[in-house]
Every structure is written in structure tokens, then in C-alpha cells.
Design a protein that fits this description.
The radius of gyration is 25 Å and the shape is elongated. It has 11 helices and 5 strands; from the N terminus they run ααααααββαααααβββ. The two termini are 50 Å apart. With 268 residues, the chain is of the alpha+beta class. A 5-stranded antiparallel sheet has the order 2-1-5-4-3, covered by helices on one side. It has 2 domains: 79 residues, 434 Repressor (Amino-terminal Domain) (Orthogonal Bundle), CATH 1.10.260; 155 residues, Beta-Lactamase, CATH 3.30.450.180.
């Protein structure tokens, strides 16, 4: 990537000034009263001290005279200002850098999303899985369609593990549909490992599937990477027989959670 444009640098400096103005002044030491301040927030010297950078360099940042601050500097500034994840990501983008990737997906689903799942019990199946391909939740309609979880052990809730170690999904999707899903499972595991390369859970899952599944090894060797957001699938409902569902995937990027909506389609 190249450096920031002049407008980017102006926006970056303005954001720093606003964050500095929003910070409370440091507590006075002992009984010494803090000097009267003519402007709210911290002084540049105080911010630079907290961030561990020189006041001269920090001044240049606020004035938009640094073409592209380093990721280390951006991290230090985010920590100094006490930014939330969303605010930190905004700072990185203003600085001309992609936001840092989280070390792993969030383990807790937003309460509002769980209420959405329950509200759609009588309308459509809905599932939620994370960026490791672990199933986090599903509503009552999804339980009826997908059946009980059959996986056991550490990877019992993992979609890729279930795909290559059980017949549940192939029975649900049929021959051609089951084979397509194996391709998707392998490619999405590759995507997950690319995003979380140091994740012990994913590395252990990959090692186990490589050691135990010839089918997984065959699909992995193809080197495919894809994420399908919309798809039409034929699925074998346990009581209603074959039915068509339009599947739409929505992403919560902050938590790296994927919401899958299975909309039933009337036969034409």
C-alpha cells in the first residue's frame, strides 16, 4: 500500500486531536493541584509520554505531516487513548493500515442475535457458526432440519470435522450435494487457517483430519478457497422429505460470526 493522501492525513490528525481533547487530565500527584488548563483533555506531551513516542513525532502526526505511521505507532496510540476495538480499527484505517486481525473469533453470541433465532423458530431454520467453523447456536427449526449433533470430543461442534468424519451431511444433502459441501468445508477451513494461522484449535483440527480422512486430504490438495454467501440447496427434511432452501449467509465481522438463514422455497 502507498502512503496516505493529504486528505487522509488531515482526517488522521483531526481524529487524534479529538481523542486527546476527550481524555481527562492526569490525576495530580500528592496534594499538588494541577495547573489551570485552557483547553480540555491532555497535552501533547502527556499523550506522547503514555504512547512512548516523542512529542515532536506526535505533533507531526496531529499536523498530518507523517506520510504513513507504522503499525507499532498506531497500536501504541490506540492503547494510549484507551480505544475500543471499533475505534482502534478506525484509527488504523485513517492511518492507511488494515485493522489488526483478532487472535480468534468471539466465543459469545450477541444477545439480540439469540433473540432473533428464537423469533424465527416457526419461520425458518437459522444457525450461527464462528470463523473456526464451530456451530455456536441454532434455532428449533434448524434442529428439526439438521438433526442432532453427532460429533464427539474437542471438535464435536465443528462443521468441517463433522463433514469428513460422519455421514450426517451427505445423508442430508444427497450424493451431489454432499460432495459439493465437502469441497466447501475444505475450502472454508483453508480460509479459517489463513485468518488464524497460529490458532491451536484449527491447527489440531487440520492435523487430525489430515491423519484420519483420505477424503479430506484429496479435497485439501485441490487448494480451493471460497466463501459462498448465497446458495440454493436441496435438503432431505426428516419428516417432510426433499425440500429446497435458499441459504443466505450474513457476517458479524467484529465477532467473526456467520449467520445462516435457510429460507424455504415453494416448488414451482
Amino acid at each position: 500500500m502507498g502512503g496516505m493522501s493529504s486528505s487522509d492525513r488531515t482526517g488522521f490528525g483531526e481524529y487524534l486531536r479529538r481523542r486527546r481533547a476527550a481524555m481527562g487530565p492526569p490525576e495530580p500527584r500528592g496534594s499538588v493541584r494541577a495547573s489551570r488548563r485552557r483547553v480540555p483533555g491532555l497535552r501533547r506531551q502527556e499523550v506522547s509520554d503514555i504512547a512512548g513516542i516523542s512529542v515532536e513525532y506526535y505533533t507531526r502526526l496531529e499536523q498530518g505531516r507523517v506520510p504513513r505511521p507504522s503499525r507499532e505507532t498506531l497500536t501504541s496510540l490506540a492503547r494510549a487513548f484507551g480505544l475500543s476495538d471499533a475505534e482502534r480499527d478506525h484509527l488504523f484505517r485513517l492511518g492507511g493500515e488494515p485493522p489488526p486481525e483478532p487472535p480468534s473469533p468471539a466465543s459469545v453470541i450477541r444477545p439480540g442475535l439469540l433473540r432473533l433465532l428464537r423469533g424465527l423458530d416457526d419461520t425458518m431454520p437459522v444457525t450461527v457458526h464462528d470463523g473456526r467453523l464451530d456451530l455456536l447456536a441454532r434455532n428449533k427449526a434448524a434442529e428439526e432440519l439438521l438433526g442432532p449433533l453427532t460429533g464427539v470430543g474437542r471438535f464435536g461442534r465443528n462443521i468441517a470435522h463433522q463433514a469428513f468424519t460422519t455421514t450426517v451431511l451427505s445423508d442430508l444433502l444427497g450424493g451431489d450435494g454432499g460432495e459439493r459441501f465437502l469441497r466447501v468445508a475444505a475450502s472454508e477451513l483453508r480460509t479459517a487457517l489463513g485468518r488464524y494461522p497460529e490458532d491451536d484449535y484449527l491447527r489440531s483440527l487440520f492435523a487430525e483430519l489430515t491423519a484420519t480422512s483420505q477424503s479430506f486430504r484429496d479435497h485439501w490438495e485441490k487448494g480451493e478457497v471460497s466463501v459462498s454467501r448465497s446458495e440454493m440447496k436441496q435438503m432431505r427434511h426428516p419428516t417432510d422429505g426433499w425440500a429446497r432452501f435458499e441459504i443466505e449467509m450474513l457476517h458479524d465481522p467484529e465477532r467473526d460470526h456467520w449467520i445462516m438463514l435457510y429460507t424455504p422455497q415453494d416448488d414451482e
